[in-house]
Amino acid sequence: MCISRLKTSGPLPRPVSLSSSDTLKIILTTVEDEKPKRPHQAFLSIKDVGSDLGTSYAFNVKESGKAKIELVSNAHFYTLLGFCPDGTMQTSKDLPAQFWDASQPVRASVQIASFGDSKPFSGPVFDLNLKIDPNTPIVTPEKALRYKKLDPIHHKFRPDPKSAPRIITLAFTLAVLLTLPVLLGAWLTLGANLNHLPQALGRSPIAHVLFFGSIVALEGIFFMYYTSWNLFQTLPAALGVGSVAFLSGSRALSEVQERRLKGQR
């Protein structure tokens, strides 16, 4: 056991040696105007000057100003994780394992501060020379997660869906065409009157032509979507042609209604 008296004027002349089986205990009393007083903050900071790695530990301070801290230096339990290798919980006073790989003694400093006009203190108090027992293995912590720029991600999208085989397309096209004679026959059987066509075109030629043309155009749009267009090409064209069909169809049906009201069938 080694006892050293700390000074506020500067660090101890010789480093404090700490082996892998020792415990570092620091006891001090904080005063203000030569009277013991509990500060708002009291920390012990340990820093590796070479790697600029540092950590801080809070003193356990009582109302009387007496502060105490213990650093357990058992190298078996040094880890940056929350638990030791044997499953026991690590205390917050353990030193990080990286300090044991330092090429030179680490610097120990004390910071004490309070609110108001209290004069704070911050300065080095001693150097800590960590000695490793060659017979005692040290648990090396896992590499910490670092946020950095990663390699670009190249997305591979699925190919566009293809149309049905040509033989199936021709079969369904033929089936649709075969229904046209049946449709025309039913139309004539029900009494379709083509004699009103000149009269309809004479009263509202633009509405009838646009309505019929928009229907044909919609069929063409569906054909293009089936063969080569994608959805983003089809929707604008279908929206424009559909609007024309709606407006012209309303006017054309109004003209047909006028003839129906006059008894023309």
Architecture blueprint of SSEs:
Layout: E1 16-19, E2 23-29, E3 31-32, E4 35-36, E5 41-48, E6 53-58, E7 60-61, E8 66-72, E9 106-113, E10 121-131, H1 166-189, H2 197-203, H3 205-227, H4 231-261
Parallel strand pairs: 1-10
Antiparallel strand pairs: 2-8, 3-4, 5-6, 5-9, 7-8, 9-10
Task: Tag the structure with descriptive keywords.
265 residues, alpha+beta, 32% helix, rod-shaped
Polypeptide structure, described:
It is a single chain. The chain has helices at 166-189, 197-203, 205-227, 231-261, and strands spanning 16-19, 23-29, 31-32, 35-36, 41-48, 53-58, 60-61, 66-72, 106-113, 121-131. The protein is α+β, with helices and mostly antiparallel strands. A 5-stranded mixed beta sheet has the order 1-10-9-5-6, with no helix packed on it. A hairpin with a 4-residue loop joins β7 and β8 (66-72). α2 crosses α3 and α3 packs antiparallel against α4 (231-261). The longest helix has 31 residues, at 231-261. The chain starts with 15 loop residues before the first strand and ends with a helix. The model is unreliable at 75-93 (pLDDT under 50).
